[in-house]
Amino acid sequence: MTQLLPHQAIIWAFRMLIGRDPKDEGEIELHRRHPDIDSLRTAFLSTPEFRMTLSKFGPKQPYCAPLFLLQKPQDPALPWRFAPPSLQEPVSQLCTAAQMEEPCFAELCAALDLPVSQHRKIWEFCFLVAAMKEKGLLRPGLRALGFGVGTEPLPAFLVKHGISVLATDAPLDVVEGQGWETSNQHATGIEALDRPAILPFEILQRHTQFKALDMNAIPDDLEGFDLCWSSCALEHLGSIGHGLRFIEESLRPLKPGGFALHTTEFNLSSNSHTLEAPNLAFFRRRDIEELASRLVAAGHQVAPLNFHPGEAELDTVIDLPPYALPHLKLLAADYVTTSIGLIIRKAGG
Prior knowledge:
By secondary structure, the protein is an alpha/beta fold. The protein has two domains: 7-57, no CATH class; 67-345, Vaccinia Virus protein VP39 (Rossmann fold). It has eleven helices and 14 strands. Strands 1, 2, 3, 4, 5, 6, 7, 10, 11, 12, 13 and 14 form a twelve-stranded mixed beta sheet that branches. Strands 8-9 form a two-stranded antiparallel ribbon. Residues 177-184 have low confidence and may be disordered.
């Protein structure tokens, strides 16, 4: 006589493998007749429900660029291009695989004491430095302002080039409960910026100041900077509106003709719906264009907007939780996202 599998085991198998309860007792009894758990598992893996779950959360899926990325901006005043972006001649552009194959990517990683890795966060730092280099900002005597610096290598890199740095990060009461203060990604002083492979700490300390600063409330007494930057910070300011307002406000401490360089999260799935939560927002193309239109109308210069998502095979890969390499595009909160870098020059220069 065949021994039936436990009734409760069948119910939990339904819940864990195909995401629902059994329809009725008959469905339970049918699956109880499997000779063992392996046979039951094999039967469930072939169900439409499991295949649907696997297609969403299983192996990495190819990405197809939506048409909204290809269209010209609605505002004819906005500079625009659609071509594979390059770190050699950076504009306001997306992270793509080809940029990580350029010789300058490995050179920038070495200069920043970072691994040569197919990771969009590594690209963000390299993009910022590539933009600084292309705009002639890596020269002694300049002043730089960093927002939300955490433990970034950029302050040490800039000081090595003779630039004085004011590094800022959020006050503890602002980030409390968000995990930053316990994740080794938040700075409370210059010690967090020590990069001995870039330059000795005593030199960094001599040319760097640190200030706790809420990016939603930039004080009026900050002024006279040649450049400012932020990397993967403004998407955490509370909303899309807060992030865009910060970018505009970041121009205020700059000298006329100074540069604001920022990277953030970009929604590759939709130009209408997006994630907008208290701790994280994904910026749509329309958000970037609306910001750029306001900036251009105010007399500022925005480097051409290039929403080309890349054309290499790696550009079609979407990373899924738990995230690993390569990590250029990822699925988060049902949206495919990547990183975007923005280059803005303040009016008057």
